[in-house]
Amino acid sequence: MRYIILLVFFSNFVFSQSQSKVSYESYYKNKTDSIYKKLNFQIKKEIETTEERRISLYLEYAKVLKKRNESDSAIYYYIKAEKYFKKNKKRDSLVYIYSSMAEVFRFNDLPKQSKKFIDEAKKNIDINNISIDILAYYYNRRAAIESMYFDKNNALKYSKKVLDLEYKIKNKEIVVYSYNEIAALNEFVFKKHDLKSCLEEYKQAFKLALKYDVIDPQLDIIVNISRVSSQLNQLDTAIDYLLKGEEIANKVGSEYHIYIYNQLLKGFYYQKKQFKKAFDSYDKAMIFERKLIHENLLAKTLEIEKKYNLSIKENELKKKENEIILKNNELENNKKTTLLLSITFLITLLAVFTLVYYYRKINKYNKQLENLSNENEFLLSEANHRINNNLQLIIILISEQLKKMPLNEQVIINNILAKIESIATLHKHLYKSNDVSKIDLEKYFNEIVINLHEVFENNNIETNFLINKVSTTPDNAMYYGLLLTELCINSVKHAFTEDTKVKRIEFECFSNEENSIHFKYFDNGSNSKNQIIKPKLVDKICRNLNINYKIDTENGFLFTFTKNN
To answer: Which residues form a coiled coil (predicted)?
Structure first.
């Protein structure tokens, strides 16, 4: 049985070594789902009949369930395996079981339970009769738990114990993560005033990850390298590693890492004043964020649909069985008319009850689907609510920092702040709206104008905004809001001279009977008169909206377009 435990423990390692020429794409994208389906089928159908083989299936299944974030199910199968190993006094295997259970609880931020099971693992260690890799796995998980909740010195000690066994360990992922753990402890505790040496430690860990061809550590260590590099003002280094990480994440299909990398790239490009790249990274991050949320909701929906379809098939089988029974009864009772009538009556009655039964059952499943739909709408509303809260927090933090900056440095930050407020306003409308598929532009634009009121007032600008009741999709609404914000900011910054006596901005938005949106923006600033103007960000937003706009500078700055809604 000990060899079965080791086979389960090294399943990822053996795969990568035996098929080193297979692309990362086929390995990472298909591995978890295909293993999950295969193991789920084998366990439920009990294809493997021997007890040892069944226990090895439980361990493989629990490992996959943990990766799929199904922690309760993972613990259930670990407990089933634990009972077998206790009964057969397999202490070596129990160390692996308890360390794995402790990791599941650590992953779910439950320190007491995590400490309890890692201590149970320690009690079962027989130093003279234990697999080197299982011992290293225990040291590695112990270090992670100590670092997260308890004694940082112990965390460093156990990580170094793994390094002492480096050349004996077959699963090199443990070794790489231990190097990473030591670098993290030095960064935040022991060498926090010497970030340069910490950065070199992270780079060394990353080189080892490349050498041993372990993917997950590469993706995680890149985040640490970029963070420390940015703190040392080595933004080019941070960006290079993140781009390299994004390339790996794209190859292996890790959408979560692509999202994280682009969130970081957005900030670093902004610091380097590469605003187009910053906007592109932000746009990509938002796409993957929505995709991750959507996939989570879709998985729940598919699970309910699967149960519903299974029930329909069972009902069809029962109906066929009833039909066979009816035919047999008719054949057996053809000789006697009286019996035939009695049986016909009974069958009719049975059919009525059957129909009533299935009618109620179908109604029950329809209600479940309706509840699921309502739950999905609530989750989407909650997601928009949380996004709005996060954006409001960012606005507060930027505003506080803005107070500490010189006036000449506040202009760019104020521009960014206005755009963030525009997006935050959109998400506020989304989570407050009963219909998240449409946004009322009248309310949305009026709130943007309110946000910009202080800017207009400080610059003595008169405004006249005429907005009719118009509805559009959330994606289009976001771009319209950014467009209006950018045009207003450009007017405040560039349109007017000191000699301009009356500064005026006018805006109209309405729809006609053909359901087309008409957008008209005007300022009377003299700086733009008879000039050829094509604002870059405005042009970018219009291309995203797939619209043809017109700019007329004869009497100031006039921007117009018409778009089918």
So the answer is: 310-382
